[in-house]
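Q: Predict the assembly, please.
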Amino acid sequence: MSAAKPQNNRFSAVGNWLSALRQRGDAADARLLPESQLTGPMPWVIGIMIALTVVAAASGLALRNVATTASADLEGGVTVQIVSAAPAERNRQARSALAALRADPDVLDAAPVAQDALNALVEPWLGTRPGDDIEALPIPAMIDVRLRQSATPARIAALRARIVAVAQAARIDAQAGWLAPVFGAINALQWLASGLITLLALATIAAVLLASRNALSNHRETIEVVHMLGGTDRQIARVFQRSMAFDAAVGGLAGLVLGVITITALGRQFAPLGSGMIGSAVLGWLDWALIALIPLLGVALAVLTARLTVLAALRRML
Amino acid sequence: MSHPESEIVQFDNVGLRYGTDKEVLTDVSFTLFPGCFYFLTGASGAGKTSLLKLLYLSQRPSRGLIRMFGTDAITLPRGRLPGFRRRIGVVFQDFRLVSHLSAFDNVALPLRVAGVIEREITKPVTDMLEWVGLGDRLGARPATLSGGEQQRVAIARAVIARPDILVADEPTGNVDPDMALKLLRLFESLNRLGTTVVVATHDAHLIRNVPESLIMRLDRGRLSDPTGALRYPPRRSPPAARLDMKNQ
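A: Predicted assembly structure:
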């Protein structure tokens, strides 16, 4: 018992401090209603909402970064393939196309993809068992081209006309075109993240609205007395606002911590997957700043909802 | 000796019905003058509490005209109601103390609502509670107080802000005769300072103790004023002069 007492005192001290913090502000309003009983489990509800919002927002921002990085990498990228079954003719046309590309003013850089690299690309499908003759396969010769400007359809068409003149077997494609379905999927996921955030915000509004109405109903008698003593709607609404702001701040902070832990853990899980697009799914400082704003926006949303709900309900009372 | 300058409350052909039921108040007309003391009497169900609700602006009438402090109280915008209510002290029949607040905080409530700063609240509230015999129960919650103690807290809350009108619904119903008389003296003191007092009661003894009072009798929702004293009260000296006379 003696060991428990100091701990109880500590809890009591924390409780008193939280109570004092909650009642800071206009002293005239502070004791109109028992603020500790106004919003019930709202810190938990808001904490969960904020944590989910943080994860959804982080996912959306990481996907945006993936799309942005990939777009930048592929913006001026063009692949020229020389599709010919005859190795000698294929090599001749490849050399001609390379020379034409390097002489082209629209081309920043053109480099042939080495045969070893091409072999490595097809190796997982064709194997490397002794006796396999990859060299004998009619794999197209490929040239990686970087244009000075983005690879628009018009530029691709003009380049195709110039290259086909010297290499009839040439096929020219914008690299971004290969990844169009991936960009489409990323875009859809970003919309999904935005939709989730919107739904979470609506769910938060609904939860605050119900909690406020419930609190108003529970304290209707006291509110009527305060009205009869000359209390204004704003004075009463301020009590609810302050209580909701406190609960939302506590819940928001807890939700932010939980959300950050979750996205950090997810990041560690995805990191070993390697390079490429996943490697660019990282959050910058601006992204972290936006994520840090989420609890503040949550508090603002909760306070505004509580205020409007309470004022609307009070207006129906005399 | 002069007649009070103007009416503080005027009811003109006021009717009140709840929902589609028959009227609980019918054609009620009277005038309350500043500094007068009124007793509202009548059998149970006569409409006393309904009339008081109209007086403390908790209810709007179904018909008729109510003027308070020179303003039409029926068309009064909702935003102006708090200002009017702060001029009215109310002792509810069921006390309506705020359960989570101590006796001190309950009595301080009208002052806090009116924006009085904390350091100007402590002394008058403590003095008031001491005066009603609850100086040692400042921190007590209503649930720990007896019916009589709760009633005294309710009365202290109603008078602490020195209202222009005090409306009390059976204010001495739960206290012993000595305390009832003491509370009546408090109402009279307030009345001498200019507050118009309206007390609903069944207690004939109480009424006899305020000989200058005017009687409002309700009978099945109708107010009787056989002598016309409610519309044309006898001339009285103004509150300040009466106070001076008493002091001499």
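Confidence is low (pLDDT under 50) at residues 1-7 of chain A. The two ends of chain A are 53 Å apart (CA to CA).
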